Amino acid sequence: MSNCGHVSTVFAGLGRxxxxxxxxxxxxxxxxxxxxxxxxxxxxxxxxxxxNEAGRGAPVTPxxxxxxxxxxxxxxxxxxxxxxxxxxxxxxxxxxxxxxxAALQTQVKRDMQVNTTKFMLLYAWYSWxxxxxxxxxxxxxxxxxxxxxxxxxxxxxxxxxxVVFALGGIFRAFWLMEFGRFVFGIGGESLAVAxxxxxxxxxxxxxxxxxxxxxxxxxRIGSTVNMNLMGWLYSKVEASLGSPGHTTLxxxxxxxxxxxxxxxxxxxxLAYLDQRAxxxxxxxQGKTGEVIKLTDVKDFSFPLWLIFIICVGYYVAVFxxxxxxxxxxxxxxxxxxxxxSAINSIVYVISAPMSPVFGLLVDKTGKxxxxxxxxxxxxxxxxxxxxxxxxxxxxxxxxxxxxxxxxACALWPMVAFVVPEHQLGxxxxxMQSIQNLGLAVISIIxxxxxxxxxxxxxxxxxxxxxxxxxxxxxxxYLVNRAQGGNLxxxxxxxxxxxxxxxx
Length: 503
Known about the structure:
- With 503 residues, the protein is mainly α.
- 75% of the residues lie in helices and 0% in strands.
């Protein structure tokens, strides 16, 4: 999945993160129904002295500690931890099911009788709707559905898409599987926007960076569990039904879709808790804050276009490779199916703990271009080792996991350094859009190369993509230096500039 969608929303909201925390206000009396009266009673219970002090015109008073159980008090840490748990599991299902095809590559191709080119369409169809939705996901959350209904609707798209995908297997209709992935894609990326909007709404001015790190880690855990579970699940269904085949495939995918139901339940619970907190604390609904103006594209600078090129050139050599990696490790290195799944998931396993660590490292040191250069060079070395050596592939894949985590932390923040704040939403939306366009096109090309020439030529193709990204990084360094840009400033230099501007 376009994991960078999470990161882009984070940095598009940087201007809003310094806002003060949610204020606690008194709920005034007004004619209300039974549910509203219950919420009002809870609001008055939060105030010292109970209901008698919560009348009309009462001053704003902090909540009384212990007036409600901590788990039920939306101003208390325990309640926010409950909300955080729901936020983390909100995206678990979509990340688990996104790489279902990669975990069952052999089974899908055999049971549906398709070649690799058609198999990779399952990833391309996920990306196509997000070429457009990257611009409108935030708008739909802010202006059309609202955060609560938006999250529920996007979760429903994910669930319906996975069910249709599974039914395509059961009825041996590959076109139906493709349509299911298209529907799944409509909900997947937009759900990530809604997830991060909830995080900003509940944790701005508090533990926000930690929250984003935990959400990202849970996403990686979902992908990892999928890689290591779906093959085993397929074998269990096969043993139950008596033989492999498209029905076994469809049933396994349907069972995997239970994780999407879990995400939908979390969306419903979050909607209730967020509405309850709004009534009790007068908390505003979350807003993405992303203002998208396509006319801003004409004002994008050359360094920003280079950042876009680096992004596309890099990620098309990572996600399509993981989508095809399981069979690669089986055929070239003789790994068992389970071992191949394990090594193919190591990129996500490493990313879960290392993304927050590398984020802190880049924050403390600055020098973003240098870190991006290190990440791209390491990825190039990884693909070269996989293509031309028989060294233990764990080495190359661990390097790929580290470089993948580092690049996300160093590349995406650079957008905020080269565009004005009012253009951040457009810049990040455009970056996600061309990334999804690149992933859709390259997924198809990768499948065609593999069907025609095999894995060696596919690896050479990925090496070419990363090399193009490397040349763009070098060019970005030279252009930034010639223009006196701030992309490669140290953290100390940026702090000094910030202080000088404040004066």
